[in-house]
Amino acid sequence: MSLRTDRISPGLSPNLTPLVDVVFLLIVFFIVVAQITTNERLELTLPNLVDAQTVEPTDQRRVIINVAPQSEVASVGGVYLLSGETFPDDNEGIAALTDRLSVIHARDPAIAVSIRADRMEQYQRVHEAMRACAQAGVRRVNLIAQRDETIR
Amino acid sequence: MSDPELPPIRRRRSRRGPAKLAIAFTPLIDIVFLLLLYFMLVAQFKTKEELFQLDLPRQGVSQSAVDPFALPAEPIRLQVVSTGDGPEDLSIQSDDPIIGSPSSIDALTSAVAAARISALGADQLFLIQPRADTHWEHALAVVNAIKRAGLSRVHLLEPAI
What we know:
The complex is a heterodimer of chains A (152) and B (161).
Chain A: H1 2-40, E1 62-67, H2 73-76, E2 80-82, E3 85-87, H3 91-107, E4 112-117, H4 123-135, E5 140-146
Parallel strand pairs in A: 1-4, 4-5
Antiparallel strand pairs in A: 1-2, 2-3
Helix pairs in contact in A: 3-4
Chain B: H1 2-48, E1 49-55, E2 76-82, E3 90-94, H2 105-118, E4 126-130, H3 136-148, E5 154-156
Parallel strand pairs in B: 2-4, 4-5
Antiparallel strand pairs in B: 2-3
């Protein structure tokens, strides 16, 4: 009797503890990552260019302005998404976006502003974001495109 | 003294020792492999996003006054109109007689590259003026075409109506 219980118990108890530990860690990790990614990047089809003369992103601190496609404005809550905040594309919204960018730029003048927009996005709406950057005192923006070596 | 105590010690070692070693590692390795796979995939996705660095024209200052060291060369204006949804469905018009109105992005690149050898300075300024409804990809494709031709001073202007 005592031999049988000895054989069963080591198979059960040490097996679960590290597994549960790691699963909990994974859950926390995915929750955190999901929050960061939804705050920073919208899911977009980025412009895909032939022989793109793009440069790789550097380690410079940066903020991203996402331009939400028309079909996703309702679910995002605004047209421009900047570090978790959304702004509509009317005059008030763009003024608020400019103010927000001014604050960010004043706090850290070396910060880089990146603009992510869908490949089918109307130029007008992307340009509003660039104009807001210029009015906030940002001198240089990063325009994000997709690099695809398969085209050429 | 030692003879009667030896058998229980051997039993304990043989029962607990191998069980602790063999079982704790298998799920750990499974998950480490999963994590490795996940990070490899994520890393690939991230490097796909790259960027164009573009200087913004200063607000309230006319284009010619942006750079006090610019040559008196006139900036070349390029108008971009989307004619469809595909990457090549666009029409380009320039006010420069050498570049003219190229029929495609590749034609624009070769026209600018040819003009660069004969007529344009290395700091030739290009003003790109897409329409309000021009697709973003097409506007960026023109920026890219000029950079491919070896020139880098490009400004994106207010949309034309």
